[in-house]
Amino acid sequence: MLSIRNISKTFNPGTVNEKKALDNLSLELKEGDFVTVIGGNGAGKSTLLNAIAGVYPVDKGKIFADRIDVTRLPEFKRASFLGRVFQDPMMGTSPDMLIEENLALAARRGQRRTLKWGITEVERENYREMLKRLNLGLEDRLSTKVGLLSGGQRQALTLLMAVIKKPKVLLLDEHTAALDPKTAAKVLEISDQVVNENRLTTMMVTHNMRDAIAHGNRLIMMNAGRIVVDVSGEEKKNLTVKDLMDMFSSASGSDEANDVLLLSGKNA
Amino acid sequence: MSFFTSLLNATPGAVAQGLVWGIMALGVYLTYRIMHIADLTVDGSIATGGAVCVMLIRAGINPIVAMLVTLAVGALAGLITALLHTKCGIPDILAGILTQLSLYSINLRIMGGKANQTVSVDKYNLLISQRYVRAMNLTNPIPLLLLLIVITIAAMYWFFGTEKGCSIRATGTNPNMARAQGINTKNDIIIGLMISNALVAFSGGLLAQYQGASDINMGRGAIVIGLAAVVIGEGVLKKISGNFALRLLGVVIGAIIYYLVLQITLQLGLNTNDLKLISAMIVAAFLAVPYWTKKNAKGGKNA
Ligand SMILES: Nc1ncnc2c1ncn2[C@@H]1O[C@H](COP(=O)(O)OP(=O)(O)O)[C@@H](O)[C@H]1O
Ligand SMILES: [Mg+2]
User: Fold this and answer.
1) Contact B181 A106 (CB under 8 A)
2) Tens digits of per-residue pLDDT, B6-39?
């Protein structure tokens, strides 16, 4: 479904701020794979997801979606087969627009935007149904401005927008990290629900090792722009947080990084 | 003459001017409030609209056709700024300044190298003229201006409710989200700037007819007047801001209030040379007051 072959990305090349964020990284996702992604701060997790989404071009390597080479496709064109939710709840929605307008924007992803006016009653009914299943009381607030919603509500809405067109790949970048623990759990539960309902191929970056173990069928750990651990199936199911930390310190060879991961794992 | 009778006499003129500038202010609202871009092209494109309109009418072209051409040249000016910004990576404000500056030379060429070209209502069948602003019949410019305002607001209300219009609004408020939803944000910026400057140049064409002349400096400070209309309109209509069409109407009302306030200050004895200073002060005041009241409200909560 998604095939990443030997991609590299260096920020600010040739300057003192040069930073190699992705280092000859390869990854194959099968259809229906739900991969959780962990790794210390600056490991390159967001860069990987952004490279897949086309936020910036990669320096080297190729990216295929469903065997189509998308390496040179601009971000807005890749959106037709991607769904994305960001860490910042402000980033995924338009605050000045109504809930239904945001959903309609997402529902027309990958289509030409025409001069057709408004939102039909059929669409509205459909949105209401989808919102109802979130259990956040948003189904009665279609004409509320999104700017008035809480962070958790906005993330849940962004999630709906991301999956409304049944994307080939869903990219979740620490999408619960900015939420309080209760809301985070709720949004995570909704994520599981929509991924399962739609059988979506998913990559979910998380800071929380317990979540990384509990969700998905495969887990990868990144360090310094590379994938250093890749487990799936039974092996993944039997992982413990301690296993992960041991793997991390042996892969990175650094206790400091271990502390970072441990701390953030406890916080999130 | 007493202060009030002279103010009353000046009111029809202020209303007409406010309506002419109101169309321009709707263009500024589009860039400033919907696209979140401070587009400085407008100081140039309003004068381009005036220059093109006057020269075409002097060449014997029907004023209605001339006005349609102002829409096109305005859109072209917006396109230049948009291309400088989206294709050449120049920051939006600077891109606007560059276009504005080049339009100064271009406007001079359009006007045959003269800084000023007249178009007399005696000689040409102009759509509107200042001369009839107190006339009690259909030569009065105000009914036609009102009609144009209604058409503009209706067109904007319709357009920003379409799929394309919604996509432009999303590009304006959250370009990251827009791209993630498959929107070509650069294209949207181009369309938005073209529509905005088309409106601005159209307003320039109306202004030139109204005054009976186009002037190379007629657009100087136009962006400030446009912003004044936007912020005054929002300040006045804060309570009923919900509906988009009403907000657009508020911008036009803002432009009228601006010209009324200007008339009052002139009646109070300030002279026309002080106009720019007064304009800037009005805008600064209307921008500062909401900021201060918000700050005080916050302080009050904490205390
Ligand atoms: N747009 C950017 N410009 C410059 N450096 C960046 C940019 N994005 C990320 N980086 C750097 O690349 C490295 C990887 O960042 P990132 O992918 O965000 O890490 P993670 O998401 O794993 O915490 C970091 O050192 C970060 O500072
Ligand atoms: Mg990150």
Assistant:
1) yes
2) 878 889 999 999 999 999 999 999 999 999 999 9
Residue with the smallest CA separation from ligand 1 atom 26 is A42
How many Å apart are CA A93 and CA A95, to the nearest integer? 6
Whether residue A249 is predicted with pLDDT greater than 50 in this model: the reply is: yes
**Residue A68 is inside which H or E element, if any?**
strand A68-69
Q: Domain limits at B66? A: 2-302
Instruction: Please tell me if the CB atom of residue A43 comes closer than 6 angstroms to any atom of ligand 1.
Output: yes
What would the CATH number be for the domain defined by A2-94+150-265?
3.40.50.300
Determine the residue of chain B that is closest to A171 in CA distance: B180
Residues 6+ apart with CB under 8 A from A197: none
- ipTM value, please give it: 0.91
- CATH number of the domain within which B282 lies: 1.10.3470
pLDDT given for residue A256 in this prediction: 54
Q: What is the pLDDT of residue B242?
A: 72
Q: Does A116 touch chain B (CB under 8 A)?
A: yes
- Hey, are the CB atoms on B183 and A113 less than 8 Å from each other? yes
Q: Is A46 in the pocket of ligand 1 (CB under 6 A)?
A: yes
Count structural domains, chain B: 1
Which of A161, A105, A123 shows the shortest CA–CA distance to B161? Answer: A105
pLDDT tens for residues A79-95? 999 999 999 999 999 99
Residues in chain B with CB shorter than 8 Å from the CB of A94 are 169-170, 173-174, 177-178
Contact B173 A53 (CB under 8 A): no
The strand pair at A226-232 and A218-223 is best described as antiparallel
Nearest to A128 by CA among A99, A151, A154, A153: A99
